[in-house]
Amino acid sequence: HRLDEIGDILWDAFRTILSSESMDSLAYKLFREALKPERNLKKDELLNFLKSKFDYHERIVKEVVKNYFIEEKMSDITLRRKSLILSQKVYQYILNTYGNKSELTLMCFEDILTLRIFIDSEHESELSTCTYNSIISTFDLYRKANVSYIPTQLNLIKQATSLEIIRPFFDSFLPTIFG
């Protein structure tokens, strides 16, 4: 592909210009820019390109995502934004790239679950239709991929009233705990 060749030429030039920068620092900056919540990615070519340039991409992506979640006060629904912190495409990319058992995917699922429970608790009218649908479809995507609930999410799950949220907890999480 001609586009890949051009990308490689630009990458080499970029690395030459930033030769004093450590690879960790460079990877962090590039992934942070690519994953910016306001970017709202529609395609994953940029993420795949960056992934191809760094062997330890999952560690870097996890660090970037974790920092975005901290900055957005993910764990406090009263303070945080009432939409997915990252773009829907990023959540999908993380699930597809790193699998349903990776720490990064589980961390993302907590954000999704927090919002899914929030809209389940009669807050649906506070959201635009687009935001609401984005949360629902991303939650459904993660559930269909059998992303597990984790014990630290029990307090969240106690707040749920929808069977769509509670049923997978009983169908898949509890049997793995109690055999």
Structure description:
α5 runs antiparallel to α6 and α6 crosses α7. The mean pLDDT is 85. The chain is elongated and about 55 Å long. The protein starts with a helix and ends with a helix. The longest helix is centred in the middle third of the chain and has 21 residues. The protein has one domain. The protein has nine helices and no strands. The protein is mostly helical and 179 residues long.
Shape: elongated
Number of helices: 9
Beginning-to-end CA distance, first to last residue: 50 Å
Order of helices and strands: HHHHHHHHH
SS-derived structural category: mainly alpha
Number of strands: 0
Strand content: under 5%
Roughly what percent helix? Answer: 55-70%
Task: Summarize the main sheet.
Answer: none
Uncertain runs: none
Radius of gyration: 18 Å
Question: How many structural domains are formed by the residues?
Answer: 1
Protein name: 8524_t:CDS:1
Organism: Funneliformis mosseae (Endomycorrhizal fungus)
